Amino acid sequence: MKYHIITYGCQMNTADAEEMAQPLAGRGFVSTEHLWDADIVLMNTCTVRDQAEHRADSNIGRLRKWKDADPHRILIIAGCAASRWGDSIRQKYPFIDLVSPATQIEQFPEAVAQVLKERWNWEAETRASFEEGKERRREEEISSSLPPYFTSSPFGSETTAYVTIMRGCNYSCSYCIVPQVRGREVYRPMPQILEEIRQKTTRGHKDVMLLGQTVNSYHDRDHGHPLDFADLLQEVSAIESVEEVRFMSPHPRYMKERVIDAMKYSAKVARHVHLPAQSGSSRVLDRMQRLYTREDYLVVIKNLREAIPNILITTDIIVGFPGENDADFEQTLSLLNAVQFNGLFAFKYSPRPGTASASLENDIPSDVKEDRLQKVLALNTAIKKAEHMAAH
Q: What whole-number distance in Å separates Cα of residue 111 and Cα of residue 95?
């Protein structure tokens, strides 16, 4: 029997999908890239932006054809959007067998075991007896209506191991729905993290990506003396089989001297950091509840470049946040010029239900948001072009 995974969103979701696949693999299921070969489909959803949520919702509807083709098939909807939707998504799509919110990933093995038991009487039937007499209907694949999600490994590259070191977020950024759908921060014990890394490197993974919503706020206080993210970077770097260490996504507030030193003095830590700025305006950052100013952010950039002169720095930018005026937006453009980022992801603000910013007045017209987005992208392209010319 086989399972097929569909994942939306960030690397955290990819790591979560890998974790949720383990109890299936432990019961003898094997992964398949082909939807119509699958007995189980696990869709891991994202709700950070409404576009990702709408895509997942739409594709759940398209999975009805797959589900109707065989009554024994199981459809599981998991992840952040599942946290927000709750049971309402099953009311909309009654053919869903299990909704597993991101906040309940630790309970997923028990939840999926119960579904398997109810559907297939798993404890009484072997795989052979389940297949015996079962007439599988083969339908033409619906690649025209469902995108091909994976071409090789569904869990990152063949060499990179995604390792979740914490879940949840203690911040209250006014635009962000993550604390609602993932809960408060919970940190994995450092020995558990290191053991997972050792196991994955024995299976051929040489590079490690440490993952957390605010990854550099990590700490472990259960082993004699407090350990923090800088300690974790040092411990991971000390594993002989690890060749490179990366992490996503740090918060500027926690990019402290100890973390920068750990990056500086370990040749294994990648000379790259993705440090979300979101805006270049201190006024907008305050409305976003980011807990730092433009000046604070620039100090962190200065410290990083002084410690690691060849470091590559990328960022996230949100344009059109409620109340963002022309002067605020010019501050964002000037931040891009001042920092000279090596790359960025830019997004138009979209309100998420239940967040503080969703009730703010002075929302920016969509055409203004689009114009600002294009200006950010154009400036980023110009900066990279100038950098390329200077290097040659």
A: 17
The answer regarding whether domain 160-391 maps to CATH 3.30.365.10 reads no
Burial 349-383 (b: 16+ CB within 10 A, else e): bebbeebebeeeeebbeeebbeebbebbeebbeeb
For the stretch 38-71, pLDDT in tens is: 999 999 998 887 888 888 999 999 999 999 999 8
H or E stretch at 382: helix 366-391
Protein fold of 2-131? Rossmann fold (3.40.50)
Give the global pTM. 0.76
CA–CA dist 267, 230 (Å, integer) = 14
At 156 the pLDDT is: 45
Q: What angle do CA 233, 239, 240 make, to 5 degrees?
A: 135
Backbone angles phi, psi at 292, to 5 degrees: -150, 160
Q: Is the pLDDT of residue 141 over 60?
A: no
Q: How far is CA 136 from CA 28, 130, 142, in A?
A: 19, 11, 17
Place 125 in a pLDDT band, splitting at 50, 70 and 90.
very low
Residue with the two structure tokens 């805006």: 279
- Spans of all domains in the chain: 2-131, 160-391
Two tokens, residue 83: 């946290």
List the Cα angle 82/86/89 in 5-degree steps: 80
